[in-house]
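Hi V.,

You were right to ask for the full record rather than a summary. Here it is.
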Amino acid sequence: MNKRLFVLLVILMSLSLIGIIFVQGYWIKTSVEDKEEQFSNSVSIVLDKVTDKITRRERNDYFDRYVNIKDSVGDLKSANLKNFFFIDQDINSDEIHFYSHGILEEEYNIASTFFDSGSGDDTTTIKNYTSKRFKATFKEDLGFDGRQSRFTPIEKVEKIGGLSSMEISAFEDMFSEFAKRVPIHERVSKQEIELLLERELNNRNINTAYEYGISSKGLPTAVKSRKYSFRKSTPYKSAIFKDAEENSNYTLMITFPKKKTFLIRSILGMAVLSLLFTLVIIVAYSSAIYQLIKQKQISEIKSDFINNMTHEFKTPIATINLAVEAIKNPQVLEDKERVLRYLQMIRDENKRMHAQVENVLRISKLEKNQLDISKDRVDVHDIIQDAIAHVELIVADSGGYIETHLNAARKDVLANEMHFINVIVNILDNAIKYSPEAPKIDIYTEEVKNNIIIEIRDQGAGMSKAVL
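Predicted structure:
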């Protein structure tokens, strides 16, 4: 794989992973915000319902007490009936419509124990209103002589009952003025507030601890839960006991000490799944990157092996060819020692080629993590001499020479003998190949502190750092 393509692929995968993590974080943050907004709306509805129920309960209690007292102990002081009439005649149909609306005003004297008038009187006068409505439609008929007429009723409706909505509103205004004088702890109890709050919160699936309190004109009152801490800036509040103009001196406030825990718990399941899937993606990404890097390294090793294979096989093949040609020489055939030496060279190079075949098998095991390069203590100078023996016939055939200057006092190193020899042989082979004339090669060794330096000099053009 091309290096640039590999880097680009890693960058794109990394950006994708970062994007996924960012999206998951943004989703969790948005979910918490949505849950918090939904929570606030639900609490506002709960407070409105609770305050409305408490207000209506107080008004109904007052009205029931008023009716009971009036009916049981009240004395009628005076009565006043007011009637309103309206007549409308339809010329086309000869129908006459008659409307009547009467209001009966009754005054009662009741004991002052119900109302604290503050005047010191034993009795208090209250008024009761009753509405009476009458509606009739008449048809005008002529007599037998054609002159006398009479009115025949064709519809008549009469209603006697309570007050209209407008009249009830007047009663409520009167009640509001009276109720303002009653202390808040006498108008509503803690038990009632807790019962209504518990019921409405459960209906809205808000199952978390809460504290409540009622303030009067921004100041705390005695009506509050045991752990409630008064705060003017609480976001959850609703006016209670409002008058006709929607004004009130009292405010019901509620706080939730564990609100954040409740909100997080509400999305915990989806958040955990999201984080789990993200973790799986991260693990898969890391594994993919690791495998890509590993495959790239293996690919580079194989590429280097293929590129160097010509050196690994070319040198022993060339040495074997030269040895065979030398043996064919009649003069060499007569020299038994030279023939044996050339045969030994052929045997050694054959062993070397066999070792290269073993290297091919080792390279094939790279993907299975089975490659194990053993290292032993070897003599650097012996390694150099063995490497020279592999190429000396080629150097001699080219009319060149190899001189050694082995000055290192310390000679032992930890290395793999076969690979170390191949490294030296490859360097010498390049020195022979790229020498413009007969190869002139000098090999130096020296010890610098705890290191052994091997220096090989030749007459070639050399290689740049970029190539190396």
